[in-house]
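= Tokenised fold =
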Amino acid sequence: MLDFSILQTTSPDPAVLAAVYTVLVSFLLSTMVGIAYIKTFKGLSYSHNYVQGLILSSIVAATVMQAIGDSLARGLGMIGALAIIRFRTSFKDPKDILFMFAALASGISCGVGAYSIAVVGTTGFVSIAFVLHYTPLGQTSYFDGMLRFNIENSDENRTELEQILKTYCKTFALITLRDMKQGERLDYAYHVKLKKNKTDADMIRLLLEKIPSVKGASLMLQETTVEL
């Protein structure tokens, strides 16, 4: 990395050079964070304003820290000035908060002159973000869905229901059970997670074969790797 101390000693105006160097480094590091956010984003569309906010917040944090320096009075004055501002932006995803903190951390590190820490910390954060994005860490199942159907209350084949669910589902839980048509039929709603080697079509087909009175059978599945 470029030795900033040499530039300070050879420059006619070290303060201006320090400000330019700080803004430049914080801009490059926060751009890395922004690119990592775009590449690891899961959803339909990301906010362009948020990505630009990541970069700008890093530069603002670096400028503020450079302005405060070692002055306690400046620090207290800056706290009082920032206390007037009310930030009401809500974050839908906890990762958005972490990326914002990463951009701010890189800017603060540059502002206090800790350029090596800023580079190492930002590079490590971006690298780990990509590793977590391309590995199934934290993923517990491939499918998650809702199974709904209704059965005649007098159907003796209802005892087959639990065995069918155990055969095709990794886990299942009864969410709702309510009467229909003055108690003639029962409406079931299950939260299910299919086994890897089982398909939803086979489960519905077996359900209709084993329990002939089943009507309105539907299974809505969603891959947990796609987050909206």
About this structure: The longest helix spans residues 14-40.
